[in-house]
Automatic annotation (TrEMBL):
GO cellular component, one term: endomembrane system
Catalytic reaction(s) noted: an archaeal dolichyl phosphooligosaccharide + [protein]-L-asparagine = an archaeal dolichyl phosphate + a glycoprotein with the oligosaccharide chain attached by N-beta-D-glycosyl linkage to a protein L-asparagine
Membrane spanning residue stretches: 20-41, 79-102, 109-132, 138-157, 169-185, 205-226, 238-256, 262-281, 293-315, 350-370, 377-393, 399-419, 431-452
Annotated organism of origin: Metallosphaera yellowstonensis MK1
Protein's UniProt name: dolichyl-phosphooligosaccharide-protein glycotransferase
Record lineage: Archaea, Thermoproteota, Thermoprotei, Sulfolobales, Sulfolobaceae
Keywords for this protein: Glycosyltransferase, Magnesium, Manganese, Membrane, Metal-binding, Transferase, Transmembrane, Transmembrane helix
Length: 737
C-alpha cells in the first residue's frame, strides 16, 4: 500500500510539473510569436548564412561535410576558415526538414527554421526548470527560472522568429548538460555522463564557444577540489561526458572556435585527469599534508598554463584571440578601431544590464552564493558560467541572449535559497513578499518582451530604426540576384554582406564575420574619399577593373543605404530629427551616411573633423538658442534637434566623398533637387530650407538601380528608405544595365 501511495504521489507530481512547465512554455512561445504578425523572413544578418548552410546540407541529404568553409580574406584570393561554430543549427534544421525536402524543397528548410525558433522558446523553459529543480529539488525555484526565461526581454531582441540565434541554442544545450551531469552525480550513475555528452556536443557545434566551455569546466573542477567536494562518481561521470563529447566533436567539419578539435579533446581529458589526480593525492598523501593537496594541484595547473603560453609564444601564436582578450582587458578594445565602432562590443552601463535581465541579475547573486556553498560539479559549473557570462556581457553585450540562460537558473536557485532561509527563521510574510516582488518584476519584463517582439524582421524593415515594413533592401537584393551576372562582385559596408551574399547570390568584399580588418578599412576609405581614389583602390588592391576598360573581367557594383526625406518636391538626405513633427530641415541618419561620419572614419583612421564641421554645428546651435531665448524650453528642444543632425554638418571633404555623391546623384537622376544640409535657417519668423546642391555626375560610377520605399508620410513630407546600386565603369562608358 505504501509503495502504491509513493508511486501515486510521484505520478501526481510529474503530471503537475508537466502542466506547469507546459504552461510557461506556451507563454514563452506566445511572446516570441508576436513577431509572426509581421511578414516573416530570416531575421538579422548572420542568420542568413546559417540558413544558407542548412539549405546546402539538405540538398546534400544531411551531409554536413557538403558545406564549403566561409572565405574571409583578401578578395579575390581568400583563404578558408573553420565552419564548426556555424554548422550545428544548419545541421539540425536540415535533418528536421529532410522528410519533407523531396516534396517541398527549400520551403521545407525555411519552415523548419521558423518553427525551430518557436521550439527554442519552449525548450529554454524546460531546460531552465529541469536544471534548477534537479539541483534544488524545489518546484518553486524551477518555476521562477522558467518564468524568467519565458518573459526575458534579452531573449527577444535577437530571438524573433527566423533568428537562428546560435548563442541561445548554446545556452539551452548547456543547461540540459548541467541537468544530466547533476543526475549522474546525485544518483551515482556515471553513465548519465555519457548522455550529457550529447547536449554538450550540440552546444559546441551550434554555438562554437567551446573554448569558453572547456575553460569554465576546468574552473569548476578546480573550485570543486578547493571546497573538497570531489569524489569518484563525479570524476567518472565527467570523464564519460568528456570522452564521448570529444569523440562526437571529432566528426565536426574543420575546427570549432580558434582551437583545433584535437586540442578540445585534450582539454576535456585534462579536466578528468585533474579530478582523478585529486582523488589519488587524497589516498596517498599523509593526513598532515591533505590540506596542501589543493596547493599542489594549483602549482600543477600553473605549470601547464605557463608551458602552454610559452609554447604558443614560441610559435608566434597569441593564446587569446582579440575578441576574448577585449573582455578580459576592456582597455584593449580601444586600441582596435573596428571594435570601437561595433555597438555589440562596447561596454554597457548598469542600466542596460537591468533592462535586459531585470531583477534576475540581483537574485542570481544569491544563487551563486548557494552554489558555492552546496554545489557539486554541475552546480559549480553553472556558477562559473554565470559569473563569466555576466561579466562578459557587461563588456561585450552581444552575449546577452546567451547570458540570460545562465542568469535565469541562478536566479531561480537564489529565490529557493532566500525562501528557505526565511522559512528556517519561521518568517511567513517575508517569503510571500519576496515572491510578490519577483512576480511584479516578471510582469514588467513580460511587457518589455512583448514590445520587443512586436517588431518585423530586419530585412523587412530594411534595417531602419523604425519597425515599419518596407522592402527597399528586398527589392535591391532581388535585382542583384536576377539582373547582374553570376560572377559579379559587390561592395558595401559589412553590415549587409550576408544579405548580398546569400539573398543576392553575389560575391562580396566583406560580410558579417569578415576577419580581415584591412579589407574593411579599405572599404571605409573607398566610401570616404572621392571616386578617383575609390577607382584606384579597386584596381590596385582588388584587381577589378571598370566596365569599358581593356582589363575588364568582373562586373563590379557598390551598394549603399539610408533614409531620404521629400518636402515640397525637394530632397533632404536622412530622416527628420523630429519625425512626425513639423519639418525643420534638420535630419539625422542611422544608415550608411551616419556610419560613414562615425564608424568608417574611426576604422579608416581619419579625424572626424575632416568630415564634420563642428564649428558650423556649434554656431548653428548658438544662433538658435539666442533667437529663441525668450522661450528656454523651446530653445533647448530645437538645439537638441539640431545636435542630432551631427552626421550632416559636412566639410568640403565630406561633400566630395563617394558615399555622399552616391546619394546626391541617386536623387538628382530621379529629378529631385537635393538641399545642402545646414544651409537652412530657423528663426522666430519662419524657416528657410536652404540651397540646392549643383548637379553631381560621377565618371567612374553610374547608378543602375535605385529602390525607394515609403517609410513615413504625414501629408507634409514623405520619408523613404533608399538603397542605391552603382556600377564601376570606365569614364565615357555607359553601363549595360
Amino acid at each position: 500500500m505504501q509503495s502504491f501511495r509513493a508511486v501515486s504521489k510521484v505520478l501526481r507530481n510529474t503530471v503537475l510539473d508537466t502542466v506547469l512547465v507546459l504552461g510557461v512554455s506556451i507563454l514563452s512561445i506566445a511572446i516570441r510569436g508576436v513577431s509572426a504578425t509581421y511578414p516573416l523572413s530570416i531575421n538579422g544578418f548572420d542568420s542568413w548564412y546559417l540558413f544558407y548552410n542548412a539549405l546546402l546540407i539538405a540538398q546534400a541529404h544531411g551531409n554536413w561535410y557538403a558545406v564549403p568553409p566561409d572565405v574571409h580574406a583578401w578578395y579575390p584570393f581568400g583563404y578558408f576558415i573553420e565552419l564548426g561554430d556555424t554548422i550545428g543549427l544548419p545541421l539540425i534544421s536540415a535533418l528536421l526538414s529532410l522528410p519533407f525536402y523531396a516534396s517541398y524543397g527549400p520551403d521545407s528548410v525555411y519552415t523548419v527554421v521558423l518553427f525551430l525558433d518557436m521550439a527554442l522558446a519552449g525548450l529554454g523553459v524546460v531546460a531552465a526548470y529541469l536544471s534548477v529543480e534537479s539541483i534544488t529539488k524545489s518546484r518553486v525555484g524551477g518555476l521562477i527560472s522558467a518564468l524568467i526565461i519565458a518573459v526575458s526581454p534579452a531573449l527577444t531582441y535577437k530571438n524573433l522568429i527566423g533568428g537562428l540565434p546560435k548563442t541561445s541554442w548554446g545556452g539551452v544545450f548547456v543547461l540540459f548538460t548541467i541537468y544530466l551531469l547533476n543526475l549522474a552525480i546525485e544518483r551515482k550513475k556515471p553513465w548519465y555522463g555519457a548522455l550529457a555528452s550529447i547536449p554538450l556536443f550540440l552546444a559546441e557545434i551550434s554555438w562554437g564557444g567551446y573554448t569558453y566551455i572547456d575553460v569554465s569546466l576546468l574552473g569548476a573542477a578546480f573550485v570543486l577540489i578547493l571546497v573538497n567536494r570531489n569524489d569518484e562518481v563525479t570524476a567518472k561521470s565527467f570523464t564519460l561526458m568528456a570522452l564521448f563529447t570529444a569523440f562526437l566533436t571529432s566528426f565536426a567539419p574543420n575546427n570549432i572556435g580558434f582551437m583545433s578539435g584535437l586540442a578540445h579533446g585534450f582539454s576535456l581529458i585534462l579536466v578528468s585527469l585533474l579530478l582523478f589526480l585529486d582523488l589519488h593525492l587524497r589516498r596517498v598523501l599523509p593526513r598532515e599534508l591533505q590540506q596542501s593537496r589543493s596547493l599542489l594541484i594549483t602549482a600543477f595547473l600553473l605549470l601547464l598554463f605557463v608551458l602552454g603560453v610559452a609554447g604558443l609564444s614560441a610559435l608566434g601564436t597569441t593564446p587569446i584571440p582579440g575578441r576574448y582578450y577585449a573582455i578580459i582587458d576592456p582597455f584593449y578594445q580601444f586600441t582596435v578601431p573596428i571594435d570601437r565602432t561595433v555597438a555589440e562590443y562596447i561596454p554597457q552601463p548598469l542600466t542596460s544590464m537591468l533592462t535586459d535581465f531585470g531583477v534576475a541579475i540581483f537574485l542570481s547573486v544569491a544563487g551563486m552564493y548557494y552554489m558555492l556553498r552546496k554545489g557539486n560539479l554541475a552546480g559549480l559549473w553553472l556558477l562559473i558560467l554565470g559569473v563569466a557570462s555576466v561579466y562578459g556581457t557587461s563588456e561585450q553585450p552581444y552575449l546577452f541572449n546567451y547570458t540570460a540562460y545562465m542568469v535565469a537558473p541562478l536566479a531561480g536557485i537564489g529565490v529557493y535559497f532566500l525562501v528557505s532561509r526565511l522559512r528556517e527563521q519561521r518568517n511567513r510574510v517575508a517569503p510571500l513578499l519576496l515572491l510578490l516582488v519577483v512576480g511584479i518584476s516578471l510582469v514588467a519584463d513580460a511587457g518589455s518582451a512583448v514590445m520587443a517582439s512586436n517588431t518585423p524582421n530586419a530585412i523587412v524593415t530594411s534595417a531602419s530604426p523604425y519597425p515599419v515594413p518596407n522592402y527597399a533592401w528586398v527589392t535591391t537584393l532581388d535585382w542583384l540576384r536576377t539582373q547582374t551576372p553570376s560572377h559579379a562582385f559587390v561592395l558595401s559596408w559589412w553590415d549587409y554582406g550576408y544579405w548580398i551574399e546569400v539573398v543576392g547570390n553575389k560575391t562580396v568584399i566583406d560580410e558579417n564575420n569578415t576577419l580581415n580588418d584591412t579589407q574593411i578599412k579599405l572599404m571605409a576609405e573607398i566610401f570616404l574619399n572621392n571616386e578617383t581614389f575609390a577607382a584606384k583602390v579597386l584596381e590596385d588592391d582588388f584587381h577589378v577593373y571598370p566596365y569599358g576598360s581593356p582589363n575588364y573581367t568582373i562586373p563590379t557594383y557598390i551598394v549603399a543605404y539610408d533614409a531620404v526625406t521629400i518636402y515640397r518636391g525637394e530632397a533632404f538626405l536622412g530622416y527628420p530629427t523630429d519625425l512626425g513633427g513639423q519639418f525643420l530641415g534638420y535630419t539625422s541618419s542611422l544608415g550608411d551616411i551616419g556610419k560613414a561620419m562615425g564608424a568608417m572614419t574611426v576604422i579608416a583612421g581619419y579625424p572626424i573633423q575632416d568630415y564634420i564641421n563642428e564649428t558650423l554645428l556649434n554656431q548653428t546651435e548658438s544662433q538658435i538658442a539666442s533667437q529663441f531665448s525668450s522661450s528656454p524650453p523651446l530653445a533647448q528642444q530645437l538645439v537638441n534637434l539640431v545636435a542630432q543632425s551631427f552626421p550632416f554638418a559636412w566639410t568640403s571633404r565630406a561633400y566630395n566623398s563617394l558615399i555622399v555623391n552616391m546619394f546626391v546623384e541617386g536623387l538628382q537622376v530621379q529629378n529631385y533637387p537635393v538641399v545642402a544640409p545646414f544651409t537652412e535657417t530657423l528663426s522666430t519668423t519662419g524657416i528657410t530650407l536652404g540651397q540646392t546642391l549643383p548637379p553631381v555626375r560621377m565618371e567612374y560610377f553610374q547608378p543602375v538601380q535605385i529602390s525607394m520605399y515609403p517609410l513615413y508620410d504625414n501629408n507634409q513630407y514623405q520619408v523613404y528608405i533608399m538603397v542605391i546600386v552603382y556600377q564601376f565603369v570606365q569614364p565615357g562608358a555607359v553601363s549595360p544595365q
